[in-house]
Specification:
Helices cover 36% and strands 24% of the residues. The protein starts with a strand and ends with a strand. By secondary structure, the protein is of the alpha+beta class.
Length: 238
């Protein structure tokens, strides 16, 4: 189904659509129908057409069937780790994460989700998972950053700490991969460029890596700070 929204600018119109439809920005396509600049006697406005994107349709066209299996860890029991801490470092790390969240005012249980070379995943189970995740995962990112800083204080700067709850990381990763392929398909069909939403370094790297070998398409990051935007660009035949 297609919807139309109007705002004083494109951002406001998109925010209205997201709020009324209850969707995230990467869950619908936007087409600008009309744009009128404001004048001394008349207010400007932007009218957009919004179409929610079905999860299966997100990988339509020539990219269908090429989405990497990002849920291998969740589906392969042999990759699931012993949830209990196996050494002093893990014990201190889990205690730090649990204490941090409880001091924020939320009840949580923590356990090891997976162990890989120089990487450990920590699963958070809480009735307040949606708050711990935050908008676009920013709360989860902030807590993860603190956990990595603490690991450095314990002398494990080489170890990367991943925090997750309700399988948010897996769901977000799959969503971004679908978004990358859909955007690439769109810019190739329209011979245009698309600027994606602001993302953290890991999410941007995922977009760059996913589209690295797609013909006629290149990506680059734009902006300042931690959360930058990725521009997907049609380059033409080479």
């Amino acid at each position: 189904m297609v919807y139309e929204y109007e705002g004083k600018n494109e951002k406001e119109a998109i925010e209205k659509a997201a709020e009324e439809l209850g969707l995230e920005r990467d869950q619908f396509d936007v087409e600008i129908l009309e744009s009128q600049k404001g004048t001394l006697f008349k207010k400007g406005y932007v009218r957009i057409r919004v179409q929610p994107v079905d999860s299966e349709e997100h990988v339509a066209g020539e990219f269908e069937g090429k989405v990497p299996n990002t849920t291998e860890r969740a589906r392969n029991p042999s990759l699931v780790a012993n949830p209990m801490p196996q050494n002093e470092f893990e014990e201190k790390l889990l205690d730090f994460v649990k204490t941090m969240i409880e001091r924020m005012g939320y009840t949580v249980s923590v356990e090891v989700m997976f162990r890989e070379d120089k990487k450990i995943g920590i699963k958070l189970t809480s009735e307040s998972s949606s708050i711990l995740i935050g908008r676009k995962g920013k709360n989860l990112d902030a807590m993860q950053l603190l956990a990595n800083v603490y690991a450095g204080h314990l002398g494990r700067e080489d170890m990367r700490i991943i925090l997750d709850t309700e399988n948010y990381r897996i769901r977000r990763e799959e969503s971004l991969v679908r978004l990358a392929y859909t955007t690439a398909d769109k810019v190739r069909q329209r011979h245009s460029t698309v600027l994606l939403e602001p993302m953290n370094p890991y999410e941007r790297r995922l977009i760059h890596t996913t589209l690295n070998d797609i013909p006629d398409v290149e990506t680059k990051s734009e902006g300042d700070g931690l959360y930058k935007q990725v521009r997907v660009i049609y380059t033409g035949s080479r």
